[in-house]
Each structure stands twice: as structure tokens, then as C-alpha cells.
Amino acid sequence: RVVPFLKIDKALAEEKDGVQLMKDMPALDAMLDRAVAAGIFGTKERSVIKHFNQQGIKAIVQQQFDIASRVLAKGLVPILEPEVDIRASDKEACERLLLGMLLEGLRELPPQEMVIFRLTLPTQPNLY
After folding, report:
1. Which residue among 29, 40, 52, 72 is least crowded, i.e. fewest CB within 10 A of its CB?
2. How far apart are the C-alpha atoms of 65 and 108, rounded to whole Å?
């Protein structure tokens, strides 16, 4: 069985605070409604961490979970993809901070809600 996912991010914003957030998605709810009607199982949304910056990484995690909440409200399963640039000179520090913030985000989700993460292979094996 093939489980269909829909890429919902439209593009990345310009880099700010060491990250590239997803651009605004003003038609997201309508797109999600069409996805539900078409039998889509879930969504994928990508943003990129370029450099270690606590404020920027926090903004990415917040945006990913905010979008995930909207996806979950429609009965779909979101794939959160806060990618860490493999060329980042401070990649390992980014990954450690990201991990802590992702765990915080998970703790805030109701227990019945499920998300999937698609993460860059970490510098330290088995970090995630």
C-alpha cells in the first residue's frame, strides 16, 4: 500500500537569524481540505537551519509545530522537516539545540496526536 503525502511548503523565506523559515501559506486550510478530500494521508513541510542561532532555531521549531497543529486539526499526519544544513560549521551545536526544542514541542502535543520527523543525519550517531 502506498501512503500519499503532500508537500505543503511553497518556498523558503530569505535567511534571517541563521535560518530559513517557510514562506507564509495563506491558502493552507483550503489546500488541506482538498488533501483530505483526495485521500492524502499526511503532509511534509521543510525549513532550513543554516547556522547556530537560538532565536532562529526556536522560530523554526515553533513554525513547524504551528503548521503541524493545523495539519493535525484536519486529520492528517504532518512530517516536520527542520533540516540542518550539512555544510553548517556549527552543525552539531544546531542539532543539539534542535533536539531539545523538538522534545519540548512534542511534550506540548496532546498524547493522541502523532507527527513524523524527517531530520538531517546527525553528526553524533543516534542523537535523535
Report:
1. 29
2. 10
Return phi, psi of residue 72, to 5°. -60, -35
Residue showing cell 501559506:
25
Q: Which amino acid is located at 24 in the chain?
A: D
The phi and psi torsions of 117 (rounded to 5 degrees) equal -110, 140
Whether residue 91 is predicted with pLDDT greater than 90 in this model: the reply is: yes
Instruction: Report how far residue 39's alpha carbon sits from residue 103's, in angstroms, rounded to the nearest whole number.
Output: 30
User: pLDDT digit string (tens) for 111-125?
Assistant: 999 999 999 999 999
Question: What one-character-per-residue DSSP string does 42-70 give?
Answer: EEEEEEEE-S--HHHHHHHHHHHHHHHHH
Sorted by sequence, the CB contacts under 8 Å of residue 55 that are 6+ apart come out as: 17
Q: Could you tell me which of 116, 112, 111, 128 has the C-alpha nearest to residue 45?
A: 116
What spatial distance separates the first Cα and last Cα of the chain, rounded to whole Å? 28
